[in-house]
Amino acid sequence: MARLKGSRAAPKAAKYQLRLYVAGQSARSIAALTNLHRICDAHLAGEYQIEVIDLLEQPQLAKGDQILAVPTLVRKLPEPFRKIIGDLSETDRVLIGLDLKPMET
Amino acid sequence: MRRRRPRAKESAGQAPAKGLSKAPTGILGVDEITGGGLPRGRPTLVCGGPGCGKTLFATEFLVRGALEYGEPGVFMLFEETAEELAENTRSLGFDLDQMVARGQLAIDHVRVEPSEIEETGEYNLDGLFIRLAYAIDSIKAKRVVLDTIETLFSGFSNQAILRAELRRLFSWLKDRGVTTVITGERGQGQLTRQGLEEYVSDAVILLDHRVSEQRSIRRLRIVKYRGSAHGTNEYPFLIDEQGFSVLPITSLGLDSQASNEVVSFGVQALDEMLGAKGMYRGTSALVSGAAGTGKTSLASSFVDASCRRGERCLFLAYEESPQQLVRNMRSIGIDLQRWIDKGLLQIQAARPSSHGLEMHLVSLHKAITTFQPRALVMDPISSLAGAGTLEEAQAMLIRTIDFLKQKGVTALYTSLTTGDRAIATSEVGISSLIDTWILLRQTELNGERNRTLFVLKSRGMSHSNQVREFILDEHGIGLRDAYLGPEGVLTGSARLAQEARDRERELRQREELAREQSRLLTRHKALEAQREALDVELQNAADELGRLTGDEQRRRERHAGDQKQMAKSRQVDLPRNGRSNSHG
After folding, report:
1. B126 touching chain A per CB within 8 A
2. Which residue does chain B place closest to A81, by CA atoms?
3. CATH of the domain at A50
4. pLDDT digits (tens, 9 = 90+) for B331-366
5. How, if at all, do strands B279-280 and B215-225 pair?
């Protein structure tokens, strides 16, 4: 699990509070986390906090954030609440989902 | 499956080839038409248009499963929230919150909000599986409801992933061995919008809510049921405050109690036409006849008799208002108002067509459960057909008759027939459920109509085969023996005229007889007198004879005495006599 526990040391009240839901250590889970770190380091350096939740270990948490698909990245803060599903391989869409890039028309 | 058959033959003693295991739903009627319930451990699709009762079906399946069969259930909601569901089902008397607290039910509301979701690459629905598994494990659920799973399709754009995941979900549910109900919205030209669920489900139940001739009709049909026989008809169903109930026409239980107690019709002569002097309590009587044959009057008389015994009676009047009924019955000497005042009689007047057959029967059920009548009159059942098709009315009626029989309510139904043909058509659907059938008829003869009555059938007792004339006047209902003569059955004026003629003839005959009697009497007297005269004559003759004989005797004696004296005087003595003797 150590590999997945990836929250970087960050200031107490990080601007971006992200939570990544995965189911076990599948290749997709690891890809999602890797992609997430890559994107965050590139765009949100020092401003983010990532919490990884493995639903196989804590299934009761799936209900709270309405998780259906895995992996799901949830942007808890800043408001509004956003959900990004998939392995986060499409960087542009992740940025749109995080409101870091305006929606393309 | 293919290999099981020969093996089952070989080892007959081991695990007999049982039918498919079924999980009873507890929903009225559904278990009857499915032959025991839904396929256990497998998914069943319940589909239909909006507002057809899918969610209610699913809810009842879970609630009754938990309460009646001890099988906890998971309710996964995709459309309503748990609060909304609890609110909606509270009116049915289900306390979902309490069931959740007791661990009989787990509710998980799955919210799918497309605007919040951004898809970035590959994913699967393990989150859903995990939630479901967690909910199942938390209460050791045996049943699962997914309502309505296709909502997922609006939340995720990758249909290929979704379809694959749903297939995986169905097989996962089977592996878990939970009996599942999946609801689905009906699609164009197929049972569901995605056309997926019906193929992966083991059973498919189609609910339909249609409007025909401005009336709403609910129907249920089992489209498929793998590995089991099932009813293939469309069954009407109701949704009321008791929940969902299907009306299986053919699978009614006949387990009502049979009472030996006899209930009067309130018409003595009619009671006497029946072997038991009335109808058995808890049975049903049908009074059928054309317009104006006295059906309502006979029904009122039955009500009156019931109230006289102090028993509550419910009168469902479909054609008259209570006031009208009370007034009209007063004209034949039946005072219904006093029974209303005493609270023994409740008259419910409403046209069944005003709010549909289903609602009508719902209100009937309610009235019966709250008022608890021992007798009931439906006047007339033929107007139920006006609220639906004939078949529907019959189905509902059969259900009602059965319900009443089970409650032990003695019921009298009237039925309006048009002409003799109707006997064979309109009542044929329920005649088999009727125990006593009284037919009222009108005969038209010599320019007038008269009512006749006869008993067509009466189960469990002998009955008169006579056609009686049925008379309504201010004293109430009376029956007269119809005149049976060479011209057939005569009623009304014809009967009166014939009776008068008969009386006259009889009078004449009596007079004739009296005359003859007096003539004979006179003759008898005359003969008697003659006989007396003869007797006197005879006596006289006898006397004369006696006298003559006596005279002769005396004459002889005198003559002998005279001779003796003469001999004495002529001195003819004894020696002469002796000489003559010796000479002799």
Report:
1. yes
2. B116
3. 3.40.30.10
4. 888 899 999 999 999 888 877 666 667 667 767 777
5. unpaired
